[in-house]
Amino acid sequence: MLPRFVGRLSLADVVTASNASLGFVAVVVAMQDVELAARLILLAGIADGLDGVVARYSGGSKVGPYLDSLADVASFSVAPAVLVYATVTSNWETVLSEPTLRTAVVLALPALFVAMGVIRLGMYTAYDTADTFTEGVPTTLAATILAAAVLCDVTDPALLLTGTAVFVYLMVSTVRYPDLLARDALLMGVVHALAVLFPYSWGRTFPWAILTLALAYLLGGPWFYWRGGRVVTEWYGNA
User: Fold this and answer.
1) With contact defined as beta carbons under 8 Å apart, do 61 and 13 qualify?
2) Helix 34-58 and helix 139-151: axis angle, to 10°?
3) What is the tens place of the pLDDT at every residue in 71-103?
4) CATH number of 11-224
């Protein structure tokens, strides 16, 4: 007897499932090697961008949008939250051995990040029907910034926790983020790939590049990103 998904899933759905698997591996690896976990999260971002491209050229399925949001929970909600927790506790070694208010913050902020990420993804699937923008910071963007920061060795616990707290709010805000144009999505994909493959080359140039581009979109996208022309793909402007 064949599994019930045979004949119902598309090639794009397979790419989406690989995104979820990468999120799981990133979680497992994070407790031992935060920089490798950060690279895996960025790799999941590439898979997240590719599934939309594959769906456009080879066709999607009815379950595609739901699978996409479910996969993003693993890769861009749980995985970055664990990455932040692992990075912070590696710098603050007494967080768990000597429970304090700081311990509660270190646990609560990543937990809230996961909760708001799940809510944001559910709201996106149910209500974000526009073709050119989405409301709230996409989980992909939040995860990319946190992962790139770790790869850039920006690992000050207070800074990481502050960034996490900001995303906890922004992911469920009503700020509109436009979808990227094809040329910009391609650029982001290339820089993502270079950051994954060559994270330490030329003074961590590629992680710094992806962090700079992602922060520029985070801070300026809703107000300054050029929305003319045809929007043909989504990289950050989605779930």
Assistant:
1) yes
2) 140
3) 999 999 999 999 999 999 887 765 566 677 778
4) 1.20.120
* pLDDT 10s digits, 14-38: 888 899 999 999 999 999 999 999 9
pLDDT at 228: 47
How do residues 103-136 score in pLDDT, each as one tens digit? Answer: 888 899 999 999 999 999 988 877 776 667 888 9
Q: What is the pLDDT of residue 59?
A: 64
Q: Which DSSP letter does residue 201 get?
A: T
Task: Enter the pTM of the model.
Answer: 0.89
Torsion from C-alpha of 38, 151, 81, 168, nearest 10 degrees: -130
152 vs 165: CA distance, rounded Å? 20
Domain ranges of the chain: 11-224
Q: Which amino acid is at 214?
A: A
CA angle 135, 210, 130 (to 5 degrees): 20
Residue position matching structure tokens 């939309």: 52
Cα dist. 212→164, 202, 219 in Å? 17, 16, 11
Rounded CA gap, 177 and 136, in Å?
Answer: 7
Which residues are paired to 134 by β-bridges? 177
The answer for residues whose C-beta is within 8 angstroms of residue 213's C-beta and 6 or more apart is: 187, 188, 191
- Contacts of 65-69 with C-beta under 8 Å, sequence gap 24+, read 65/125, 66/125, 67/13, 67/16, 67/17, 68/16, 68/238, 68/239, 69/121, 69/122, 69/124, 69/125, 69/239
